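Record 1 of the preview.
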Amino acid sequence: MSLNETKEVDALQRVMDELHKVYKNKVLPLEEYYNFDNFDLPPMSDKDFNIKPTVFLVGEYSTGKTTFIKYLLSRGYPGMKVSPEPSTDTFCTISYGESDKLLPGHALVSDPAKDYRTLGKFGNNLLDELQCVEIQSPVVENLTIIDSPGILSDMSNVKRGYDFPRVIDWFAEHADRVILLFDAHKLEVGDEMKSILNVLTKNIHKVRIVLNKSDLIDYQQLFRVYGALMYYLGKIIPSRFVPRVYIGTFWDEPFNRLTTEESRQLLEAEKQDLLEDLRNLPRDLAMEKLDYVIKRSRLVRCHAHLIAYLKKEMPSIFRKQARKDNLIFNLSDIYFHVEEEYNLPRGDFPPIEVFQEYLRTADFSKFQTLKPKLIEIVDRMLLCEIPILKDMALQAGSLTPAIRGGAFGLGMEGPFATLALSGVDIGSNSPFWAVRYDKPKYDKIFNSLNPIEGRISSDDAKNEMMKSKLPNSVLGKIWVLSDHDGDNLLDDEEFALALYLIKLKLEGCDLPTDLPRHLIPPSQLGLDCAEGKIKYAIGFVAATIMGLNFMFFGRGGPLREDEYVKRGGFHF
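->
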């Protein structure tokens, strides 16, 4: 790691340390006083403030989870098994080490440096199916990857020996990104998958869905499978939105013969979108942790007020159970009362059904009365300290290096870089003008407009551009971008650029605010690109000849300015 990268990581570590201190000193005392962990979530541990983000993979068997990890790492790892039948039967954490080694589950839970100790509460059956792999890979220097056993479509004859959905919930809670994989060639949503989707709901903002092996079906079938998946997810996930579904094929094998050039570009673009999301995880980590602490603080504050109110409403001696049942039954009225009395947003309250379920087994005699001082500390933290931490997190995020190596490395260089680009970005990695391939067909239209001295008027250009039926506001922006020299006329390059931008807009692409370098007409770039160099050289020779003509023959020499312009010189 370079000196600059070390400083950038130190900046992120300072933010996480300050956030950890704020949580431990301001929020945790309120959680412990009102037993928040008994209702919802265990306290945040040191690992939750680690600067290395965690990616957790979930999916049915044979959806390509292990192959996906191999693709990210660009290598295998100890204990890796890839086969059509259910092969991954363990939870496997993959982290960085100076040499490749494998650590079994019981030793992993006993290692305080790994901070997986709380997994021991799920019993020996889970620990027998837990392992940690350390490998020397640049990808896991700044990232931890966790694989999980395949979800089974039929659980009638299978007993795992531990609470599988609760374990998935534990890993999802401690992960920064959850990748949920489905097989496009074999789309199934069984009972166990439905239970997993239910436990992932509270961390739905972390979930990214991948429709893997999408090259195994043709374009028409792909859209049918995509629609069916969105339909299933919309019915199962009790959320206002469904996470984005990435369509891709995550391995290094050739594309299937059914893949057309159009579908290949789609798969490549979707793959790069997902990799970009994962690549920037370290940069987004500080802000995401800060956002989570804010959300958690608001939930704890609301929980404290509810518990204190229920404690106040309970009788001292007689009819305790009857009063408890009555309070649980009328919980919606209690929500309204607490909301009005303490001016709390209704969105901070837990779902009524979930809280009622918790209260039925809770011992009301252990509830605490209201302690305003603890709540005031949290309120002051949200008002005064969080804005400072937000500025620190934004600054640290802009400095933090992205994940490198493996699939995040330099595999999209040279002529293949354009596979990952779209819209106005196409051609940005090339030294040549991005419009050059389309220019011949645009030149035919340009010449049909009878240009004068190599240019057409704004009226002629307007009539041609209006044929696109784009709004005047859009065409006006295209005109400003295309008339790069600002002379209110268009030469052949500027006209070709205008029609190229119209084509991009009709394809659904956004227009740039300023014209990027690879779209600037070559004759106006001078020495800044390969074509510009050639045209500049021609123009320089033409200018020299003009000067000699002027010296020997006067201003009326045989080489006119319009000929000079046609040869690629600068416009006067």
